[in-house]
Input
Amino acid sequence: MIDNGGLPRTPSFSPHARSMTTSARSSRAHRSPGSALLTLAAALLLGLAACQTDDAPPGADADPEMTGDAGAEVRPIAEPDSERIELVPSPQTAPDVPGASLRMDTPTAGQRFAEGEDVEVRLDLEGYDLGVPTPSGDERGLARAPDGQHVHLVLNDEPYDAIYDLSDPIVLEDLPAGTHVLRAFPGRDWHESVKLPGTLAQVTFVVGEGEMEFGQPQEWGPSLIYSRPQATYSGAAADSVLVDFVLSGVDLAPDGYTVELEVLDRVFDIERWAPYLLTNLPSGEITLRMALLDPEGNEVDAPFLPVERTIQVERDDEGNGELDENGS
Output
């Protein structure tokens, strides 16, 4: 044993150990600068973790840029389009038409037609001019019929046809066999119905050999005929959309019969027979459902009730709001 006189001892390395150490050093000397930076970054992260206090949850003081949350956009949940829809009474009163009356001469009540036979409809209108503009129509901002005032002709629960000239009979072709109901009433050039006694004409008739399924509309009791809206609304015509119907054998009252209108997932109760306006309708196809409710809130069970319609709203185009010659 060699005594070095109390001097610090120099560690001895075996050739194998020295060789390993030299090899490791040589390996570090040849690493890329990027590898060195990664090693330094790892050391810094370990140091940061060690500096956290025991009562602080991990990431409590983290920089958003370090956590990846920087620039994340929190988007508010938008209300469904239907939540913005409103139904409001029309602010304007339609001009009076005293003395207006409408009668259906053919078909007659219970008349029977052979399958394939044309059905001629003859209407007699008094006290109301067709094919002329309605006074004050320009002030309403509603879709208007380009050919003026007209008669709404409704077959069963189908969308109405606008009739501008009654000098010749209207011919219904290729009606299917069965019981049919035809109803007619005058309309202004913005399609609002005339709501006066004697202006609703209606009749039940039969095509083919089958039995009549129900009687004349006057015998049904409370009922209604859907009128508006229908077809397509574009441009300015989509801003305010007319809701209109005609009553038969019933009046409306808050504690009596009412009309229920569903628009998408909104439900509106109508307690007065008057024109209404739908506003804030979204673009696209919109389905409406109209039902007549009794004083207990039950849907009235009458032929062709309730009624459903699908309309198209085009708010983004350049339409001028004028409708086609069918008034649809």
